[in-house]
Amino acid sequence: MRANFIFSEVWIGLRRNLTMTIAVIITVAVGMAMLGVGLMINAQVGMMKDYWYDKVEVSVFLCTKNSDMPSCKGKAVTQGQTQALKQQIEGLPGVEQVFYEDQATAYKNFQDAYSNQKALADAAKVEDMPTSFRIKLENPDNYQPVIQALQGQPGVAQVINQRDLISQFFTMLDKLRYAAVVVAVVLVLAAALLIGNTVRLSAFNRRRETGIMRLVGASNLYIQLPFVMEGMIAGLIGGVFAAVMLIVTKVLLFDEVAQFLSSTAATIGWDDVASVITLTMIIGVVICVLASFVTLRRYLRV
């Protein structure tokens, strides 16, 4: 009988405040989805950093004929200078591997990279491609000594640390991650306020019933339980909608980004998505329950 009464009261409360309940569900869904997206972006950025930072190299571009780099003075690198540079690089501390890329290989890589831009790919010629050394470091963070040792050497046109190039991309992703989390926090607070208002209206509409229940000796928990369950159900439904949105985001956004970057090994998996969904649903339900309790303690005299 007690269980039937509680569930009937929950149904009455949800039905009486249907529009507010729908507003709570939508707000919880959007807030938890944004929070989940922020967590997924955080996991994705971490995986991409580990993946790409492990692969980044120091590129040493050598002089070509009529090069406009001041250090080349319009002269191409000689065979002797190339051999001397290779020996010097191999002798530097912290260097794990050294790869030499000739003009033919550089041209092929250029064609592959710009295969979608036919005009640019067709305009390039083999002799336009610079030769280079690709240096893989034991510790990618310790790149400064290598760059300082090679800059200004005979035959060297330019030394580039690829990490500096992709760091700008990761900086943009970090800003996107923080923005998603900030928006999620704002929406979560809005959901808590909506839940509080819903519970307050429900308690006001049923103040006569709750007064009678108190007179017959019902406990505070027994009186509060239907209102708390209303918030919990709304949070749970909102969490389910958020889970659907996160699954769609994984398929349409994260998988597409992985294909664009040609690195499926650096994308989050379904186990990560399941963990995020579980966490956001728990957070959504807990927020709804806490908001209900706080509102009842303030507005419901039991």
TrEMBL record:
Primary localization: membrane
Keywords: Cell cycle, Cell division, Cell membrane, Membrane, Transmembrane, Transmembrane helix
FtsX extracellular domain ranges (all copies): 56-159
Sequence ranges assigned to domain ABC3 transporter permease C-terminal in this UniProt record: 182-301
Spans traversing the lipid bilayer: 21-41, 178-199, 220-253, 273-296
Localization (cell): Cell membrane
Function field: Part of the ABC transporter FtsEX involved in cellular division.
Database matches in PANTHER family: CELL DIVISION PROTEIN FTSX
Subunit structure: Forms a membrane-associated complex with FtsE.
Protein name as annotated: Cell division protein FtsX
Organism expressing this protein natively: Nonomuraea corallina
